[in-house]
Design a protein that fits this description.
Distance between the termini: 18 Å
Oligomer: single chain
Bound molecules: adenosine-5'-diphosphate, magnesium ion
Largest sheet: 9 strands, mixed
Number of helices: 24
Radius of gyration: 28 Å
Shape: globular
Structural class: alpha+beta
Strand content: 5-15%
Helix content: 40-55%
Length: 730
């Protein structure tokens, strides 16, 4: 180990004791939501009629007129300024996958040479960031390079605190002047609307719609992440630039001992978690769970579920908070899906369901026959949607970083299938074979004299190898990547389920006619479910998703297997996707295609940056270290020979070593050559193919030989902190 590394680690470890002393005790119920302009704050600060109108805007989507917006903005500003805010920002989610903000101060000239603090309704409801520097996937050609941000009153306004600076953050949608969505929030909101409209039709059929105004999509995302010592992080250009290691031999101790998962949380990490949670608490993010994950240095944080729009905003805040707080403890939070080769990667399990605005979860099997049958309709509609649009669901989670994880025998396979559990699968089979009755057994519901099968009260079993699992009263989309926004996969899921519910509702409405009898409803629903199960049950799979046998079986069943992003992303360029999204007014055909291009371009950029970083590290750090070691070996051998001792064996070893260093140099140059081409075609897809087929294999070759050398070259000469340091210094 070099002196510099020794010092870096010493500096880092001194943080540990320091961190423990920094904690402030707090009561969750006292601070929860303190930095949010909450319903309570609004009620206290707004005239009653304004408050009521605003609530109608928030809950029913009514328009807020300009005068009212002025009153709301002014109250919001006073609230923020009292808490130290000097600036406000429209907070939005461009297609970079991150959030964006541009701060403006509250000051306005008062006409007499001084300034006063002011915030108008116009400034609250609309902003104008320059759209030309954000990805648009060619959309810009169709409109001016201008876009605007529009206040989303359904997601709470909050304060962003950073040192002494406090900023009022207004969640907004980001669209072009011609109305094209340039962000992740706009289509999400539209997809929630689409799903609500179609789901309400099902409720009407079952006459369960009384008092229900809309259906909410609910989301509870579980976030996995890594923590590494920040001093070591800075000594790794690959982590710094790419958020993952591009080199690194496997340490002797990885995760074989299975001693990390749910293990006791290291003190420094716990301090970091507690402080992150405190900040999230202030922001009204209901964080609930924290634990060690499977890989060494891997952890998880999970909030309680909320409506999907707010949950997605909160998810962005969770990622940002983890990143922001970690350095205070000498740590770096890594959200990449696969920061370390050979050990588990990170996902973001998106727990998803649909519920009425009166709080009834539509994916919760319930006791009485009516809602029970309704549950089966929703369940079957999801199965149908996932089967018909597995390609879209797969593409919604495709990225250069998630490619390292999916299908890697530690994360869900790239083949989309549904895990239902034994009991529910049994029920689906009963539906298919004609709904025979079952007698009541432990844990199951007897539905009485109906043609419906029994429903389990609890899914019980779990499956960690499925990309999309039913877990008792919700689905868990487990293939989502840890660094990605939940908004996009949720948008796709909502849309495919909306389409499926539309189909089911249309079929039922047609067969049922007006005022059908109860018996007729049961018969018609049973017949349709039977048909749908027959058609779509191929997507149900309860076995081991990691096994080779499943890959073969899935192929037999005709399920799409898109191995990587370059296979998956072109799905958004196809007519099928454009038709679906435009039909439900989630995205136009042009917007859908633009997204396909943006994601492919991002893939190309991400891999190219990685490739270039590898070349630079190899040339400026690894080759020189390998050469220095070579010289040492050569000098030692020459000196030994000069002393008259036989060195034949060592000379042979030196020859082998020199050949290896030669391979290192030629692999570096080969990667550099691959990077300097762009492939033959000109489209983002052509570039992506070149990157996958030429650049990535060259990266793998270079890594292989560099990792071999890491295990030979003297530790004090090796320029990068090793996996051993990165993963085990806590
Ligand atoms: P576990 O998966 O360990 O059994 P839970 O059942 O409590 O834990 O849920 C895990 C995640 O699923 C949590 O983030 C939780 O908020 C979320 N969740 C629970 N119910 C729903 C729901 N109806 N819709 C969306 N997410 C949900
Ligand atoms: Mg879970």
């Amino acid at each position: 180990m070099t002196k510099a590394r020794y010092e870096a680690i010493s500096a880092a470890t001194s943080w540990r004791d320091h961190a423990a002393g920094q904690q402030q005790a707090y009561k969750v119920e006292e601070i929860f939501g303190a930095d949010v302009f909450s319903e309570k704050a609004m009620r206290e600060r707004l005239p009653k009629n304004v408050f009521q109108r605003l609530m109608r805007t928030i809950k029913k989507g009514e328009r807020l007129d300009a005068q009212l917006a002025d009153v709301v903005a002014s109250a919001m500003k006073d609230w923020a300024v009292e808490r130290g805010a000097t600036h406000y920002t429209h907070w939005f989610q461009p297609l970079t996958g991150l959030t964006a903000e541009k701060h403006d101060s509250f000051i306005t000239p008062d006409g007499s040479g001084s300034v006063m603090s002011q915030f108008s309704g116009g400034a609250l409801t609309q902003g104008e960031p320059d759209a030309s520097s954000f990805p648009s996937g060619g959309l810009r050609a169709t409109f001016e390079a201008r876009g605007y941000t529009a206040w989303d009153p359904t997601s709470p306004v909050f304060l962003n605190r950073s040192g002494p600076n406090t900023t009022l953050c207004i969640p907004t949608a980001f669209v072009s002047w011609t109305g094209e969505a340039l962000d992740n929030k706009t289509p999400l909101l539209r997809s929630i609307e689409a799903l609500s409209t179609q789901a309400m039709r099902i409720l009407r059929i079952f006459k369960t719609d009384q008092g229900v105004a809309r259906i909410n999509t609910t989301l509870g995302p579980e976030q996995e992440y890594f923590l590494v010592d920040r001093n070591l992080y800075f000594a790794r250009p690959d982590l710094l630039h790419c958020d993952r290691t591009l080199f690194g031999a496997k340490p002797p101790k990885g995760q074989q001992l299975e001693d990390h998962y749910f293990g006791s949380i290291p003190a420094r990490v716990l301090s970091f978690m507690a402080e992150s949670e405190r900040e999230l608490c202030l922001l009204g993010v209901p964080v609930k769970t924290r634990h060690n994950e499977v890989a060494p240095a891997q952890f998880e944080i999970a909030p309680i579920f909320e409506n999907a729009n707010v949950a997605c905003d909160h998810q962005m805040l969770i990622m940002e908070t983890l990143k922001r707080v970690a350095p205070r403890y000498g740590l770096q939070c890594i959200l990449h899906e696969k920061p370390f080769a050979g050990i588990n990667g990170s996902g973001k399990h998106n727990n998803w369901s649909m519920s009425t605005d009166t709080g009834i979860n539509l994916l919760d099997p319930r006791e009485d026959t009516h809602t029970n049958m309704q549950f089966l309709v929703f369940l079957t509609a999801v199965i149908r949607g996932v089967d018909l649009h597995a390609d879209l669901l797969r593409a919604s989670i495709a990225s250069a970083s998630n490619d390292h994880r999916l299908g890697a025998n530690e994360a869900p396979p790239a083949i989309i299938s549904i895990f239902l559990g034994d009991m529910l699968t049994d029920i689906v089979e009963q539906i298919e074979s004609g709904m025979r009755r079952r007698t009541k057994t432990g844990g199951q519901l007897d539905l009485g004299a109906t043609t419906l099968p029994n429903l389990p009260r609890d899914a019980g079993d779990r499956n960690r190898t499925s990309p999309f699992a039913f877990t008792g009263n919700k689905f868990e989309f487990r293939a989502v990547g840890s660094s990605q926004t939940s908004a996009w996969p949720m948008t796709v899921l909502n849309t495919i389920v909306a389409e499926s519910l539309d189909f089911v509702a249309s079929q039922l409405e047609k067969s049922l006619g007006k005022n059908p009898s109860e018996a007729k409803v049961q018969k018609v629903v049973s017949d349709l479910l039977k048909k749908l199960v027959k058609q779509h049950k191929r997507v149900i799979f309860n076995g081991d998703g990691y096994s080779q046998a499943w890959h073969e079986e899935a192929e037999k069943r005709g399920l799409p297997h898109m191995r990587d992003s370059v296979d998956a992303l072109p799905v958004f360029l196809k007519k099928k996707a454009g038709d679906l999204f435009s039909r439900y007014k989630v995205l136009s055909r042009v917007e859908t295609e633009a997204r396909g291009h943006i994601f492919l371009e991002k893939y190309v950029k991400q891999v190219s940056i990685e490739g270039e970083t590898m070349v630079s590290i190899a040339r400026t750090q690894i080759v020189p270290a390998a050469m220095a070691h070579q010289r040492r070996m050569a000098e030692a051998i020459a000196a030994t020979q000069g002393a008259g001792v036989d060195v034949a064996d060592q000379r042979a070893q030196l020859e082998e070593y020199v050949a290896r260093v030669g391979r290192l140099v030629s692999a570096t140059e080969a990667l550099d050559r691959a990077l300097s081409h762009h492939g033959d075609g000109a489209t983002p897809l052509d570039h992506a193919k070149h990157v996958r087929d030429e650049v990535k294999p060259a990266m793998a070759d270079l890594r292989e030989v560099a990792d071999e050398l890491e295990e030979i070259v003297a530790d004090e000469l090796w320029p990068l902190p090793t996996y051993r340091d990165l993963l085990f210094i806590k």
